[in-house]
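I hope you will forgive my troubling you with a question about protein structure. The matter concerns a single protein, recorded as an amino acid sequence and a row of backbone structure tokens. Please examine both parts with care and let me know of anything in them that strikes you as inconsistent. Thank you for your consideration; the sequence and its tokens are set out here:
***
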Amino acid sequence: MIGWRALLTALLMGNAALAAWGVFWAGDESSVLLTPGLRAEWVAVEKPWQQAVDVAQNSAPPGPKINLKEGQAQLDRAIASANEQVSRNPDSNLQCLLWGPLLESESARVQASLAEWSGKIQRLERQVPIGYVVYLPQDIVNSGVGIRQLASQGITDMFFITTPGPLQGTISLGLFRDLDRAEVQKEELQRKGVNGVQIRERLGPVRVFFELRGTQAQITAARSAFELNRRGELGTCEATGPT
């Protein structure tokens, strides 16, 4: 019996020793974890990469939102509008040439040379300037300034215009082919005391023009036709259009 009790007592004392040992280490570990300066939440760790990201995110303004569907819709509307304009005015994409001025006999020959031309042809009749007239307007003539008074002022090149038209009732004081010479005549008359003198273009007889509209290939063919039948002049409508 004594042996059994001694054995039990030894076991109880061993368990007590082990328990004391565990408390000792637990206490020591707790003291280490609670030591100031070693707890993780008390340690300030610098993280510069996060700061850089935060600064960039806070300083950069948000970019514009792109609506791809709306952009495509705007493009479709613009294309549709352009197509509609072209369909309403198909001649807007055509080039234009003006062939003339032509006498009536010349116009028949030119029209024959364009008989097989596939572009659009429009025949025009216009009076073209052939020079300039220096004249005294009708209102001054009606005020009493006539041939005799002008002759007394040393004017010899003059005549009263009776032909129906815009110059009827005026007095011609010289006919010239170019504007510079007409200007010189006007200044000379003013030095002689003739006031109110004006200059006007002289329109010649009616001449024929052909307005040609077509594609690049058709315009090239029209130029070839002109080279084979050089009558009048051939130029762009804007540069040579009759006035």
